Amino acid sequence: MCATDDVEANFRTCEKLATLASDAGCAMLFLPECFAFIGRKGEDALAIMEPLDGPLMTRYRDLARAKNIWLSLGGFPELGPDAGHRLNAHVLVDADGEIRASYRKIHLFDVDVPNGPLLMESKTASPGSEIVAADSPIGRLGMMICYDLRFPELFSALRYECGARVMLVPSAFTRPTGAAHWEVLLRARAIETQSYVIAAAQCGVHSEGRASYGHSIIVDPWGEVIAKLDDPDEGVGIAVAKIDLRGLEETRAKIPIETHRRGLGDRTAFPVTIAEM
Predict the structure, then answer these.
(1) Per annotation, catalytic residue among 26, 34, 105, 203
(2) pLDDT tens-digit readout, 22-45
C-alpha cells in the first residue's frame, strides 16, 4: 500500500486489503509500518497519536472482527511519554478484534540517506525497550518494525529466547536503501534464524520528498522467496503464502544450528583479542 496523511483513505485501503485476504482464505493479514498515517513531516504523526484503546485503533480492531481475520498492524502512532514523542507500535489483533500483543520499535531510524531524505525518527518518537513474541494461527511470531531488520541480535533473541518461528518486518524502507539491502537482508535473517520472514512494505510516493521502496516479500526458512509483489507502485495488493511449520522443523533439523551455538557473550569463556599494528 501507499499510505498518506489521509487517515480515512488509508483505512479504506486497509479495508480493501483485508477483504482480499479474507476472500483468499488467509488466516492473517500483515500491514506495513505507517499503515494508518504517513505525514509530510516527522512531527505530523503527533497530531493523531492515541492510546491503543483509542478510536482509530478501535476501527482496525472492528475491521479484524468484521473480516474474521488476524491483523498484524505494522506501525501505529501510539500515545508516547510526552506531547513531543510518540511510540511506533506494532499491534497484533486477533479475529475477534482483541489485541493479543504490542511491540514498540526499539531501533529508531536516524539516518541521512545517500541520494535520499534525512530522516530523524528519534526527534518525534521514543524507542521501545521490550522484545515481544506472540502466538498466532501460523505459529509464534517475532515482532519487529523496519529498521530493526539491520540488527540480527534481535532476531536471535526472538528465535532462541522466545521460540519464534515467523519473523515479522513491517516496513517503510526508503528507495535507496531498499534497492540495495531489502531482499538480501530479509533472506539473510530467514537463513540465520531458520524462520519464515514476512515483510509487508509501503510503496510509492507518499508526499513530496517521501517515497518507499515496496516489494512486499515472504521468505521461507531455507531463504527462498515464496511470495513477492514485484510491481508495488502499480497499486495496492497482497502476496499470499502458506506457512509450513513441519517443513520449518525439517529445515532446522537439517542444519541444527541451535545445538551448535556457543555463548559468545561470555567473555570469561570467549575473551576478545585484538592484534593491533
Answers:
(1) 105
(2) 999 999 999 999 999 999 888 899
208 is catalytic: no
Which CATH number do you get for residue 168?
3.60.110.10
Q: Low-confidence residues of the chain, pLDDT below 50?
A: none
Q: Which domain holds residue 151?
A: 7-260
In a domain, 153, yes or no: yes
Res 232: pLDDT: 55
- What region does 163 belong to: left with phi over 0, alpha with psi -120 to 50, or beta? left
Residue 140 lies in a domain: yes
Amino acid (one-letter) located at 141:
L
Catalytic residue, chosen from 14, 26, 33, 203, is: 33
Is 266 inside any structural domain? no
Q: Residue 252 is placed in which grid cell?
A: 532446522
146 a catalytic residue: yes
The distance from CA 139 to its chain's CA centroid, rounded to whole angstroms, is 16
Tell me how far apart the alpha carbons of residues 138 and 168 are, in angstroms, rounded to a whole number.
Answer: 12
Is the Cβ–Cβ distance between 32 and 74 less than 8 Å?
Answer: yes
Q: Which of 2, 14, 34, 146 is catalytic?
A: 146
123 is catalytic: no
pLDDT of residue 209: 80
What phi and psi, each to the nearest 5 degrees, are found at residue 53? -100, 20
pTM of the model: 0.95
Q: Would you state the pLDDT for residue 221?
A: 98
Number of domains the chain is built from? 1
In a domain, 268, yes or no: no
Please give the full DSSP string across 52-118, using - where no structure is assigned. TTSHHHHHHHHHHHHHT-EEEEEEEEEEEEETTEEEEEEEEE-TTS-EEEEEE-SS--EEE-TTS-E
CA distances from 134 to 91, 226, 267 (A): 11, 23, 32
